[in-house]
TrEMBL record:
Protein name per its UniProtKB record: RNA polymerase sigma factor
Keywords, ordered alphabetically: DNA-binding, Sigma factor, Transcription, Transcription regulation
Originating organism: Sphingobacterium bambusae
Amino-acid biosynthesis keyword on record: no
Domain RNA polymerase sigma-70 region: from-to ranges: 27-94, 133-181
């Protein structure tokens, strides 16, 4: 079988649903780099990122029939899978235990080469200068952005946690993102 060099999104999805291996290879070749960028920002370690990328493509392959083109593009669907899989991975007990059980030389190397990875979430935000930007939002909007984008909560989990309606959470997060866009465009 010869490799596929170009597929439209519709053709790609159709072939994936038929379990065409060439379509899967095309998907991996054309999307793995972009997804890797999303994953590495969350898991912060190459070995973990490689494992998560593999999990993402297995999920896409096994669940491609769940993709709904009316809800968005294939890439957007895969980005959501990548984000959720990455967050689930770093929350997993295995990863947390691995980080606790590192040998002393690994910890020393990690401290030197992974300063950013060792920071807590808010330190990371401040490290890239986002605290100043987030500080321009109202405190309730800051909290929603922090929960959604830095702590990995879903909108439903935020609504349940803060005991506010899901629609209110969605509206406020959208408003916060629009304000952040305006703030960043001014800088």
């Amino acid at each position: 079988m010869s490799p596929i060099h170009y597929l439209s999104e519709d053709d790609l999805i159709s072939l994936l649903k038929k379990r065409d291996q060439r379509a899967f290879n095309y998907l991996y070749d054309n999307y793995s780099g972009a997804l890797y960028g999303v994953v590495i920002r969350i898991v912060l370690h190459k070995n973990y990122a490689d494992e998560v990328i593999q999990d993402i493509f297995v999920k896409v392959w096994n669940h491609v029939e769940l993709f709904n083109h009316e809800k968005g593009r294939l890439y957007t669907w895969m980005i959501n899978i990548a984000r959720n899989t990455s967050i689930d991975y770093i929350k997993s007990k295995r990863v947390q235990n691995e980080q606790k059980n590192q040998s002393l030389p690994d910890i020393v190397n990690s401290a030197e080469t992974h300063l950013y990875a060792d920071m807590n979430q808010m330190e990371r935000v401040d490290f890239i200068g986002m605290n100043n930007v987030l500080g321009k939002l109202k405190p309730d909007l800051q909290r929603l952005v922090q929960m959604a984008y830095y702590e990995g909560y879903t909108q439903q989990e935020i609504a349940d946690n803060l005991q506010i309606p899901l629609g209110t959470v969605k509206t406020r997060i959208r408003a916060a993102l629009l304000q952040l866009r305006g703030i960043l465009n001014e800088q």
